[in-house]
Design brief:
475 residues; alpha/beta; GMP Synthetase, Chain A, domain 3; Rossmann fold; Helicase, Ruva Protein, domain 3; 4 domains; 4-stranded mixed beta sheet; 20 helices; 9 strands; flat; binds adenosine-5'-diphosphate; binds magnesium ion
């Protein structure tokens, strides 16, 4: 049988697969494509230079064994690096082979005769000459576990956070993804985990960074042509906390680099903690391979706190600030501000400020005035039930008809409109909208939203439905 790149590589792969961890195999070997075989040299295409370096550093032995087994002692391996979409990366490699006609795909070939030379790691983020470099953790000591009050809404996330803090990298919560709406305590909890780890394991390097800042640093590193130093810097962190990863949406370069950093940390038993305003299934424009990594660990949701928790959060805050306030007023505030802990705190702070600036006593009347200002500014949220009711009424059908499995066109359209408005007017996730409107999955809801968008720009009658319903729902 004639040997082809594919057949040689597939034999190598089955040997490699039997000899390394499944996770490592998935990460480092599945993405490789065999592209050429000639003169007993196999060319494999790898996604990035970093990927190639990683293979060289960690898997060169097994690659050599596998290839020699297939092709004998004269076997050669050639890496083809898919060029990354960056302007940097001009450093010449050991050797470049003129590439054969590869059409539009820009690529770089590196011939590596199995010499495993470790490249010297240079790191601009670290002052040279100092051993055991200290990296500032960027943690806010006020955001600790002690003042992150527990309630039903956050119990899972808080306890998962504590478990991670006790054994960073040593639980199955890796990564730990904390998700939830605005002002529900994601940033606070993420800091609390970092602070607790620093307390228990002072020797560990912990770093908190927002996804936005991470992206900025990455872009700078590309401009300054030290992308690899950027990567190496992040690879020496023991506990990496990245806040608001939804910010990476659509930023493929940053996602790519984060993917590699993540894999490195994960494989070395380092802990990764992420926060996001959406559940993984609802994240858009995040690469699939990265999403699948997010799902490796635990996604823990922070929900809106119930009344009791809201009261205890307020009381705790007042206690820490040394302010006394009648229970009646605390309860009034907690009763009326429901969806956001930041607003809850904001209301109580302005209440204290108002009363001390104007020398007014804190009364329920004053509390009412202030709470109204807060509540007015936050758009009233309609419920998904209410939306289904309004849409069904409008089309003169029952809610149960709207939710049914029927494929009749006008019912399907009503259902899609309900889904569309649920997405538009509530903060519910696609998955949760789907489960509430006739037990559909998130993909169905996404499809419904797209269909409504399309139809309302092409179909006049349909646009009228959308406008009428919008009016009814935003009253
Ligand atoms: P997010 O990052 O989810 O938008 P934050 O972590 O910034 O929210 O939290 C908003 C505010 O609410 C912060 O001041 C935080 O301390 C407070 N907060 C949120 N949840 C709790 C809680 N369970 N106990 C005490 N304070 C909380
Ligand atoms: Mg935050």
């Amino acid at each position: 049988m004639e040997l082809t790149a594919q057949s040689v590589w597939s034999n190598c792969l089955s040997f490699i697969k039997d000899n390394i961890q499944p996770q490592a195999y998935k990460t480092w070997f599945e993405p490789i494509v065999a592209v050429k075989f000639s003169d007993n040299a196999l060319s494999i295409q790898v996604p990035s230079k970093f990927f190639y370096e990683w293979l060289e550093e960690h898997y060169v032995k097994i690659l050599k064994v596998a290839l020699t087994k297939e092709l004998g002692e004269t076997a050669k391996l050639v890496y083809v690096i898919k060029m990354e979409n960056t302007y940097g990366n001009k450093q010449p490699f050991t050797e470049r082979i003129p590439s054969s006609n590869r059409g539009a795909v820009k690529s770089q070939e590196v011939d590596v005769p199995f010499n495993n030379k470790n490249p010297e790691l240079k790191n601009p983020f670290v002052i040279p000459g100092i051993r055991n470099v200290k990296i500032e953790s960027q943690l806010n000591p006020n955001y600790n576990f002690e003042n992150f009050l527990e309630g039903d809404s956050n119990r899972l996330a808080r306890n998962a956070g504590l478990a991670v803090a006790n054994k960073p990298g040593g639980t199955s919560f890796n990564p730990l993804l904390i998700f939830g709406g605005v002002g529900l305590g994601k940033t606070h909890l993420a800091h609390a985990i970092g602070i607790d780890i620093k307390d228990k394991y002072p020797e560990k390097t912990v770093l908190y960074i927002s996804a936005e800042k991470f992206t900025q640093q990455y872009i700078d590193s590309v401009k300054k042509n030290n992308r690899n130093d950027f990567i190496h810097f992040y690879q020496i962190i023991d506990v990496l906390i990245i806040d608001d990863v939804q910010f990476l949406s659509g930023k493929t370069g940053t996602q790519d680099v984060f993917f590699h950093i993540f894999n490195h940390l994960h494989q070395n038993g380092k802990q990764v903690i992420l926060t996001s305003d959406k559940a993984p299934v609802d994240m858009q424009d995040i690469e699939q391979r990265l999403l699948s990594r997010f799902k490796w660990g635990l996604s823990a949701e922070l929900q809106t706190p119930d009344f009791e928790t809201r009261v205890s959060i307020l009381k705790n805050k007042l206690y820490r600030d040394g302010v006394e306030m009648p229970d009646e007023i605390v309860e009034y505030v907690a009763k009326h501000i429901k969806t956001n802990v930041r607003e809850l705190e904001g209301a109580i702070i302005s209440l204290i400020a108002q009363s001390s600036f104007n020398k007014k006593e804190i009364t329920v009347g004053l509390a009412k005035e202030i709470v109204e200002k807060f509540v007015k500014n936050t758009k009233r949220e309609v419920s998904i039930d209410y939306i289904q009711k309004v849409v069904s009424d409008y089309f003169q059908m029952d809610v149960s008809t709207l939710q049914s499995k029927t494929r009749k066109r006008h019912i399907v359209q009503a259902r899609q409109l309900a889904m569309f408005f649920a997405k538009k007017f509530t903060k519910a996730s696609l998955a949760s909208i789907g489960s509430q409107i006739g037990k559909r999955d998130h993909a169905t809801v996404l499809h419904a939203c797209k269909t409504v968008d399309n139809l309302s720009s092409t179909d006049k009658q349909f646009r009228k439905y959308v406008e009428d319903l919008s009016k009814k729902l935003s009253l």
